[in-house]
């Protein structure tokens, strides 16, 4: 599918009722209720706090694809793109081949308590992506039960990534990152990993036309407690998605399109080919993620005194907080030092002038500041 066709598909079928970073059961419930009879919609269990965990099943094909999103409750970009894809399945003739060749089992929000609270963890502060073996949590048990009963041929583990990640160690943000997880301590390149790598390489080919040099490869250190590593150890090709930052896109609206494009590319590839993994080497051409970014860097800031100037850089990271049902991005000083090998999504040159925080107090690491004073002028940090 060409970029023009992908763009037209997205613009036609993007779900208008989902926007921003805060996506919960209450947002997706009316969308699930509005699906036609070709979709099976049902609850597969409940969360710690008793919220329903819903699933969607569609298609009659022999290639079985399991997808789950918001295992971490505050990682919602992949969920929005899932509903864009569901609209394609619902309305577009393009989807006929997909539904004939594949069966999709979609869990839009695996962690509804975390989604409601806008936290990574579930209601008892457990990271579900570290509970794949012990299965201590109801949400983890639900996912494993689905895996066991559905017997997928492919697993798509859908996540979001912080703004700090770069595609390699250069001034290129990782807008989308992928991983074909390891399935043993030696990180052996097994047949199932090769198939996942092959699919990722296909998605990367599409994304390089949209966001050249902004695709990263996530670290493949092995942890059997992680769901992706665990499912991969069962010899089922598993692909981790990380939806990351794009310039001035803190609501991840632009990233949403790139995730949608990746879905369509991957599913078209799976539906049309018997994937052997022969193209797995192209996966290693994707640069591994580094952590080279801050949200704001103030360069050449005098953080000393007029009498004893100290010229350093100030790194600001935004802390995401749910305030009155909306995600706010609160600036916090993360580092005050020379940041030669780091980049800011926004950079300001203080030109050796004094940089102070609220009430003209010296900046301190760990302190939130909506604005700073640079010389005699106020500079707003908050979005």
From TrEMBL:
<keyword id="KW-0482">Metalloprotease</keyword>
<feature type="domain" description="Peptidase M14">
    <location>
        <begin position="9"/>
        <end position="322"/>
    </location>
</feature>
<dbReference type="Pfam" id="PF00246">
    <property type="entry name" value="Peptidase_M14"/>
</dbReference>
<keyword id="KW-0645">Protease</keyword>
<dbReference type="GO" id="GO:0004181">
    <property type="term" value="F:metallocarboxypeptidase activity"/>
</dbReference>
<protein>
    <submittedName>
        <fullName>Peptidase, M14 family, carboxypeptidase A</fullName>
    </submittedName>
</protein>
<dbReference type="InterPro" id="IPR000834">
    <property type="entry name" value="Peptidase_M14"/>
</dbReference>
<dbReference type="GO" id="GO:0008270">
    <property type="term" value="F:zinc ion binding"/>
</dbReference>
<comment type="similarity">
    <text>Belongs to the peptidase M14 family.</text>
</comment>
<dbReference type="GO" id="GO:0005615">
    <property type="term" value="C:extracellular space"/>
</dbReference>
<keyword id="KW-0378">Hydrolase</keyword>
<dbReference type="GO" id="GO:0006508">
    <property type="term" value="P:proteolysis"/>
</dbReference>
<keyword id="KW-0121">Carboxypeptidase</keyword>
<keyword id="KW-0862">Zinc</keyword>
